[in-house]
Amino acid sequence: MRSSTLIPKPNHFDYHKCLQVLGDNDFECLHFKENGTIVKALSKGGHPFAFRISEENEGLKLDLLNGRSNYLAVAIFYVREWFDMDRDLKPFYGLLNENPKLSFLLEHFEGLRLMGIPDLFEALCWSILGQQINLSFAAKLKRRLVENYGERLEVEGKIHYLFPRPEALAPLDPEALRPLQISQRKAEYLIGISRLFLEGKISKQHLEGIGDAEAVQETLLKIRGIGLWTANYVMMKSLLLPNAIPYGDSGLNSALYRLELTNKRPTKEEVDAIFEPFDGWKSYLTRYLWRSLSLNT
DNA sequence: TTCCAGGCAGTAG
DNA sequence: CTACTGCATGGA
User: Fold this and answer.
1) Which of A14, A86, A173, A249 is flagged as catalytic?
2) Contact at 8 Å (CB) between A126 and A85?
3) Phi and psi at residue A45, in whole multiples of 5°?
4) Does the CB of A192 sit below 7 A from strand B?
5) pLDDT one-digit tens code per residue, A255-267
6) Nearest nucleic acid nucleotide to A251, CA to C1' distance
C-alpha cells in the first residue's frame, strides 16, 4: 500500500518561485507552508484527507498524511492543475525574449507557473469576495467563510479546512453572512451561485466542454455577480484557459503603468493591444505582470 | 478627510 | 449607448 508518489517536473519548473505566490499562512487558510513544504486538505467522495507536497530533484513528492492510499490519485490530479504542470512554457519564453520591455519578466520569473484554483466554486467565491476591496481584507473574509462553513479536518495536531461546498451556502439567507463583514450584495452573489451549482446549472465540467473561450465568457457573464473581470479571472485560474485577461484589474493596471506601457486606467482596447503579441499566453503574461509588482520600483 | 483597493448591478439620461 | 452610484472596510 503506497502512501506517497512522485510527479515528475516539466521543463521550466521552479518550485520555490511557485511557492512564493501562494501567500503566507496568515493570509491563506486553505493550506499551510512548512519549511518549503505545503500541507493541504482535499476531499474524495465526502472523505477529507490531507497530504504534503515537497520538492525532490526529479519532481514533486506527495505524501498522504491520513486516509486511504487511493486518495493519492485525487491529490495528484489536483497538484498537476494547481501548479499547471502539463504545459510547456517554451513558446511563452520565446515571445518574452522578443519583447525588450517585458523580457525582464523571464529573467526574474523563469519557472513560475500559473498557480490556479482548481475548484471552480472556490475560484468564483474567492473572486467575488475580492471584488473592489483590498486583498488582505478579502483574505479575511475568505477565512471567515471557510472557518464558519467549511469542513474541518485535524491531522498531525493541526486543523485543516476545506472550502465550503455549495450545499453549505445555498440554504443561507444573505443576512447570515453579514456578521462576517461580507456585504449584503456579495452574500447574494455567493448564495445565488451556490444554488446554481446545486441545481447543476454551472459546473467546471460543463464549462470545460464548451471549448470556445468566447462562449465560456458569455456563459459566465449571464450569472449575477460575475462581470468581465471575474469571468476572465476564473477562466484563467480555474479553467486554465490560455488567453484570459482580467480587464480592469487594479494590479494588472498598476503593473502596466509602472512599466510605462499604459496610463493608470487603460481601456480594454489598450490592454488588448499590449497583449496581442502574446496569443496563447495572455493568462501567463497576466500572472507574470502581477508577480512583477513585488519587484522594487 | 479623501481616495482607492485584484468590480458589480442597478438606474438615469 | 455612457455616466453615475451604493456597497463594505481598512490603510495610505
Assistant:
1) A249
2) no
3) 55, 35
4) no
5) 999 999 999 999 9
6) B6
**Spatial CB neighbours of A237, under 8 Å, sequence gap ≥ 6:** A114, A116, A117, A123, A127
Cα three-residue angle A95-A100-A105, rounded to 5 degrees: 65
Q: Is the CB of A228 under 7 A from strand B?
A: yes
Q: What tens digit of pLDDT does each residue of A84-97 get?
A: 999 999 999 999 99
pLDDT beyond 60 at A1 = no
| A57 touches A51 (CB < 8 A) | no
Q: Which domains does chain A have, with CATH numbers?
A: 4-86 (3.30.310.20), 120-292 (1.10.340.30)
Concerning whether A249 is annotated as a catalytic residue, the answer is yes
Those residues with Cβ within 8 angstroms of residue A119's Cβ, 6 or more apart along the chain or in another chain? A163, A204, A238
Nucleotides of C under 7 A from a protein CB: 6-11
Nearest to A172 by CA among A186, A190, A197: A190
